[in-house]
Amino acid sequence: MGMQKSKGREIFGAGPEWTEGLEEDLIDNFREFKCFELIPENFFDNPHRRYFLEALRKLSTPVLVHSVGLSLGTDEPFKAAHFEKILAIGDQVNMINVSDHLSMTESGGIEIGQLTPIPWSIKTADIVIRKIEQIQKRITVPFALEHTAHKFFYPTSELSEAEFINRILEKTGCDLILDLHNLHCNSKNAGYDPHGWLSQIHTEAVTSIHLAGGYVDKYGTLQDGHDEIVPEPVWDLLDHVLKMLTPQAIIIERTGNYPGIENLMMEVERAERALSASLKQSTKNPSPNLRELAGAV
Ligand SMILES: [Fe+2]
After folding, report:
1. Cα 285 to ligand 1 centroid, rounded to whole Å
2. First and final C-alpha spacing in the chain
3. Residue 117 and residue 218: Cα distance in Å, rounded?
4. CB under 8 Å to 203, separation ≥6 — which residues?
5. What is the CA(253)–ligand 1 centre distance, in A?
6. How many angstroms is it from 210 CA to the middle of ligand 1?
7. What is the DSSP secondary-structure string of 235-287?
8. CATH code at 18?
9. Tens of pLDDT along 6-52?
């Protein structure tokens, strides 16, 4: 089939995420990484971290600029000034896309401090859609949206999660970040089949995949801690998904409790091997344009 592109775009491979305390080790191994993810907010007002961006730029490493601060689900005006700061960080590296989460991180000007679930409703979808459209008008690289691990589920919902996500993808034509640990946590905590969830989502919009590990809290809930190795059920989900689609990038998200750079390298290599193997035996269908499918203008 020759399906060697992701949504019509170049495929890069696997890489890690920037994390505090591991900068020197990451820089030493930059050449091993096919791509890199960073949270731009970690670089705001931190001129001493400029050297890290410099090192990335020198190698032209493809960088996925992954914001946690736009609070797309909040029913308040788009944070345009914040977004300009994100782009100022992205301009210092080889930025291949910008992304944020399908959640809210503030309300009424108050910072919540974590990715908080938003209601799956048409009204909330419209709020997110309007903000993504503002982002897309401002940038020349693609925008990607990540579905999140839910700290809680609303008792009633107008839409299913799949309907909610798909509606936004159809209206904006944006990319989807598929986080397989988020899916693993949600499916375990809410008791559903992750394969069934995947079959309902517009997976043709997926351009990157996140892998991570987490922990079980004192209430018995699986949490997306980014502080453990990627568990085997998540690797199994990756194998399943790579039969359906080809991402541009697979990112290992590990931001705490580091056992050392070697373990991170092993996980990046394992993801790289899985992607290469899937490319060799690819029989996937080329990705259709979602907007065309949805009949949107
Ligand atoms: Fe993620």
Report:
1. 25
2. 29
3. 21
4. 176, 178, 241, 244, 245
5. 7
6. 5
7. HHHHHHHHTT---SEEEE---SS---HHHHHHHHHHHHHHHHHHHHT--PPPP
8. 3.20.20.150
9. 787 899 999 999 988 888 999 999 999 999 999 999 999 887 789 99
